[in-house]
Amino acid sequence: MPPPQDASRSGRRPGWPWQLGGSAWRYLLRRTGHEFLRSRGVDQAAALTFFAVLSVFPAALAVVSVIGVVGDGPATASRVLDLVEQVAPGQVAETLRGPVTQLASTPSAPAAFIGGVVVALWSASTYVSAFGRAMNVVYQVEEGRPFWRRKLAQLAVTVLLVLLVTVVAAIVAVSGPVLRWVGEIAGVEEGTVQVWQVVRWPVLAAAVIGIVAVLYATTGNVTKPRVRWLGLGAVLAIAVIGVSSAGFGIYVSLFAGYDDTFGALAGVIVFIIWLFLIDLALVLGAHLNAEIERARELLSGEHAERRLQLPVRDDTTSARTARTERLDHERGELLREGEPLPPRPDTLPRRIRRRVETVWGWLRGHRSPRPPPT
To answer: Where is composition skewed (Basic and acidic residues) in this entry (predicted)?
Structure first.
């Protein structure tokens, strides 16, 4: 395997993590912490937590609806909540159990089902949108995609994440009796079923890491490197989530006294804090991914000390944003000098009028000529 110096001299970015070398790893780990603080990672996590609170129940509705089509929704939801109770502080599972169980047990007509899933996906996409804005900050790029293109991409990512979470829920829901029943039908030996009981937990961990890597890869207005690099940030995020959840659970159980202070609201408070810890870990993992990419670019000889050299997905609206900023500065100078402010050329009515004139001119140019008179 060629050392990092060879990759640098050849101008190629290292293709695997072990090609980075000790110096690069020390540099990128230290800079990950610096950039996390410099870009106000705590504030980004707080903003993501707000959108997570808005999105969690619509997302749960979408997942439970999909599970209800292919299996036993209430039973699967109960097993997933049992897993959440093992991972998260106890009040979190109790806070979610009532609403999620009600969603899973409520029947609906086909039209209402489809409409509910569509509305739920649209609502859940607000978190994907917020996460994309956070990724733009992490990778130091501006959002240049038009709204319709950006929203379609966010909805597609939301649908993909819902399907992946549904697969994870199915892995959790496959209990011992179900496995033995499936094994009898498929002719699988009992030993194989017992092995799956053990193996499914590493499979579950890998699936969760994959979900986080997909979230990293598909959000933001920047073309990311391959998923094998993004998986490193996902592993860090999952590890931090596990450690922080365990520590927070011990703190809540032994020292906090949320039940005495907040009463019936204790579960909600604990749930929001737990979501904040999750988003904090996700932002930290994204910064690690960005700094790994910076180290790869530096080792290949690219000037990435200040800004990453990754291409953006789209810059359609970047020129409009720059023009608006320039107009604001020019009008500010006129105001400072006491000059009258002329009408803005970029108001919505003027833009609509220009767009209509452009379309009309295009139609007139492509109109077939009239035949000559006979």
So the answer is: 312-339
Is the separation of the CB atoms in 353 and 345 below 8 Å?
Answer: no
User: Which residues contact residue 181 at a Cβ distance below 8 angstroms, ignoring those fewer than 6 apart?
Assistant: none
> Is residue 312 helix, strand or coil?
coil
Q: Look up residue 71 and give its DSSP letter.
A: S
Check: CB of residue 270 under 8 Å from CB of residue 89. Answer: yes
Q: Which two tokens stand for residue 314?
A: 């789209």
pLDDT digits (tens, 9 = 90+) for 27-55: 999 999 999 999 999 999 999 999 998 88
Cα–Cα distances (Å) from 95 to 42, 84, 199, 225, 275, in that order, read 25, 11, 30, 38, 13
For range 247-273, the mean pLDDT: 77
- CA-angle at 358, arms to 354 and 360, nearest 5°: 115
State if pTM tops 0.85. Answer: no
Q: Rounded distance, CA 360 to CA 354, Å?
A: 10
| Number of CB atoms found within 10 A of residue 294's CB | 25
pLDDT score, position 3? 43
Q: What span, in angstroms and rounded, lies between the C-alpha atoms of 369 and 359?
A: 18
Region label for 257, one of left (φ > 0), alpha (ψ between -120 and 50) or beta (otherwise): left
Looking at residue 186, its pLDDT comes to 55
* Residue type, position 217, single letter: A
Per the listing, tokens 């937590």 go with 49
Query: What six digits make up the tokens of 87?
Result: 């991972």
How many residues are recorded in the chain?
374
Q: Is 125 left (phi over 0), alpha (psi -120 to 50) or beta?
A: alpha
CA angle 348, 354, 359 (to 5 degrees): 125
- Locate the domains of the chain by residue range: 17-299, 318-365
Q: Which two tokens stand for residue 82?
A: 């049992």
263 φψ region: left (φ > 0), alpha (ψ -120 to 50), beta (else): left
pLDDT digits (tens, 9 = 90+) for 211-236: 898 899 888 898 887 767 788 899 99
* Longest pairwise C-alpha distance within the chain: 99
